[in-house]
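General statements about sequence and structure are easier to judge against a single worked case. When preparing material for the folding task, we compiled for one chain both its residues and its backbone structure tokens. The amino acid sequence and the backbone structure tokens for this protein are reproduced below:
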Amino acid sequence: MSRARQLYVISDLHIGGVYPESPQLGERGFRICTHARELAQFVDALAAKPAGATGVELVINGDFVDFLAERRAPPAEWSPFLTQPEAAVEKLREIVVRDRPLFDALARLLARGHDLVLVLGNHDIELAIPQVRGALADVLGSDRFRFFYDGEAYVAGDALIEHGNRYDSFNVVDHDRLRRFRSLLSRRQPIPAEYAFEAPAGSRMVAEVINPIKERYKFVDLLNPYVEATIPLLLALEPGLRSKLARVIPIAAQAARHGLRENALPSVGGDISSAPAGAAGPVGGDMGGLDTTESPASISPHERRLDEALEKILGAEAKPFLAALEAEARPLDGTGGDIASGEEMLSSATGLLSLLLSGSGSLENRLPALLRAVRVLQNDRTFDRDFEPPSVYTRAAGQLAREGGFSHVVFGHTHLARDLPLPNGARYLNSGTWADLMEFPKDILSGQQDDVRDKLRQFCEDLANSQLGRYIVFKPTFVRLEVNGDGRVTRAAVLDYTGPESL
């Protein structure tokens, strides 16, 4: 019989990125977590609990720190994965300096005799590197924490805890290649090309597409992960990004090579491998089955496939949407689609802000498709904790609970807190996020198209001017599990953190 435990599960902290120089002016810097002090308060409240017969255990269920939010030196300013251990250690130390109170609170938690468990996510892959793990132990003043990587889930009694990116083709981590890469690093050996680690498609998407766009549109990574639906939204805002966004197509092809044979079983290599970079395969998921025949000379093959992807996303509204963009969809810098600097984007004649200021009718042509894109990204129940349409996550949780005999399956990753029943009487819990979220106005999400045009235009104007305050929400949540000495979960809940009294 083991010791009874109280588990507090949090995820998607996304500690990383520089703070704004002038926060009083509404600037966001390059962060999606702007409440690290509240997080440190949460950890300190746990540390203050007595370390008695019932153990207190903090589980950080993936995306603890955010290496993808860390800028490198030009010209390659963003990296999907830091391959040099020294560079990764340096970035971790920079993250710690910015948010030292949080790491000090974690050190106090361990010093008080409580347990800390880390589960690898997809924004903090570098934590698996031996040198980075060592640096983290130095920061915390202890190596007594447990760390689950190599694709392992954490089993606590009859509860299964994992980040959840295993079921997201854009963000699955190739742990086989990562293990070989780490094995060489642990011996300080050079990395031959055949042992190089390839970052997930979603990490490439962030580094190559999302981060450069975020220089202009600060909201793009505040939306819950939904790559396809973000594409028409960004195109409606900046048609000149068309050739840049076309890069999503080959990235999507990489992602599609990791599929699911069953709801909770990847089709390639069990749970720790995806196909090698050169493997053939169609683009899958919502962007799948696209024709690969030759394109007209006027657009690249990737751009044509992007148009076909838009038809799948927007349906009948895709053709008028594309027609409205056709005259404007030139690269922002005239060099074939590279992202322009902030000044170039601000002065772009095709940009949303310029259209709003000029009163161009072109924006009006885009609004119906923009509305569709917004409603694909969110609906009026997106943030309801007890609702989720069938998804890869609920289906995976159901199979895991059924086959493993788990009473509770806990994920993170989606940034959306959930507490839902599963078919076999088990429950699916999602720990949500401590990062900021963007919530679209409900009257846009549910109103009639003719009634919401003015509201949508105002929404676009706010986005163009980075006036995001009324749309940004902070909803910190955690999962609390009570596990008795027999290994059974006796109580479970997804809870809002409103202060130490909420623990």
Q: What stands out?
A: The chain has two domains: 7-167+382-436, 213-223+225-381+442-473. Confidence is low (pLDDT under 50) at residues 270-297, 330-360. The CA atoms of residues 209 and 245 lie 7 Å apart. The chain is about 35% helix and 15% strand.
